[in-house]
UniProtKB/TrEMBL annotation:
UniProtKB keywords: ATP-binding, Nucleotide-binding, Transport
Domain ABC transporter positions: 2-232
Name assigned to this protein: ABC transporter domain-containing protein
One term under GO cellular component: ATP-binding cassette (ABC) transporter complex
PROSITE patterns noted in UniProt: ABC_TRANSPORTER_1 (PS00211), ABC_TRANSPORTER_2 (PS50893)
Length: 337
């Protein structure tokens, strides 16, 4: 278990990490998600031991790694970190880079070859670093970090330079590899799709505070507040009174606000459903069509994601209702810390 307790890191003028407490169970992957400048890299550097907390403690299992008066140096933590800007050795080839920390191990060559294969860079084995693409260098950096068989792998935006198709494939393989080898991982990203795919838990950071810390489905369906709801996807934030129009008979608090995800609203033929609306705008996203609706009478604009072959057009009349299996989540606007 990697455990941070009340970690704070500040400069003279500002607080970068504010009283962070979290747990990452051994062998699981957690992503650290947040907008640019929210403190993700600082948290990873602190876990790696490249930076020290001003207050709080960091432990791996029973071992105290960091506290205001104790600091285990990075090379003694059994961790590897893949940085946002790659730090490869330009004078060595790909193999030399990946083998750097394991040269003396008996199975070094097999281990290096297996990692090159895992990350689809075997064909680059004898290439120089300085003529590789950004995505290729990223994979070399990842292979090098795994080669030393770390207990904990820290990755800062590890797939930012890799195209979507390859990224998906590498995700799957890396995920299985981490699981099979019992490696605990902490991955910083600002891409929520990447976080959904990859994580057992997501740590959501905003302005240096941990505002949500839960498995992906919980974060998407029952986020800590409206900001988290919006960061993780399109939202409708409706009062109980507004939502009641789409879901008659549901027990709702009229003045409370509810999160209603766009895919939990069903469009029906005009004249059917719970309410009537007109299509005000549509955007095509491939897997679904986003439709913005104006309810008859007054009321908020409603966003709906429609799948299937039917294309809706601006001005068209539709019926709509909350899906019977949807569970609207009451939203609390106070940060949950
Ligand atoms: N050594 C430092 N001195 C002063 N400010 C710092 C220092 N390190 C980080 N910061 C500031 O702390 C904030 C958090 O930085 P950090 O790099 O951790 O954010 P991030 O979430 O990783 O951002 P990005 O997604 O852009 O990489 C930023 O506003 C940054 O400018």
């Amino acid at each position: 278990m990697l455990r941070g307790t009340a970690l704070t890191r500040a400069t003279r003028t500002r607080t970068i990490l504010n009283n962070l407490s979290f747990e990452v169970p051994a062998g699981t992957t957690a992503t650290v998600l947040g907008p640019s400048g929210s403190g993700k890299t600082t948290l990873l550097r602190l876990v790696m031991g490249l930076d020290r907390p001003d207050t709080g403690e960091l432990r791996l299992g029973d071992q105290l790694l960091s506290s205001p008066d104790r600091h285990v140096p990075p090379q003694k933590r059994g961790m590897s970190m893949v940085f946002q800007e790659f730090t490869l050795f330009p004078n060595l080839d790909v193999e030399g880079n990946v083998a750097f920390g394991v040269k003396r191990a008996r199975d070094a060559e097999t281990r290096v070859d297996a990692l090159l294969e895992l990350l689809e860079i075997s064909q680059l084995k004898h290439r120089r670093i300085d003529n590789l693409s950004g995505g290729e260098q990223q994979r070399v950096a990842l292979a090098r970090a795994l080669a030393v068989a770390p207990r904990v792998l820290l990755m800062d935006e590890p797939f930012s330079n890799i195209d979507a198709m390859l990224r998906q494939r590498l995700f799957e393989r890396l995920h299985s590899y981490l699981r099979a080898n019992g490696i605990t991982a902490l991955v910083a990203t600002h891409d929520h799709q990447e976080a959904f795919y990859f994580s057992d838990h997501i740590l959501v950071l905003k302005d240096g505070r941990l505002i949500d810390h839960n498995p992906p489905r919980r974060i998407y369906e029952q986020p800590a507040n409206a900001w988290v709801a919006e960061f993780f996807g399109d939202t409708n934030l409706l009062t109980g009174a507004e939502l009641g129009v789409l879901a008659p008979g549901r027990p709702l608090q009229p003045a409370a606000r509810y999160l209603v995800r766009p895919e939990t609203i069903e469009l029906t033929d005009p004249g059917s459903g719970a309410a009537a609306a007109t299509v005000a705008k549509t955007v095509y996203y491939g897997a679904y069509q986003e439709v913005r609706l104006r309810l008859e009478g007054t009321g908020p604009e409603i966003r709906v994601h429609c799948t299937g072959p039917k294309t809706l057009r601006v001005g068209e009349q539709v019926g709509l209702m909350l899906r019977t299996d949807a569970a609207p989540h009451p939203i609390n606007d106070e940060p949950a810390d």
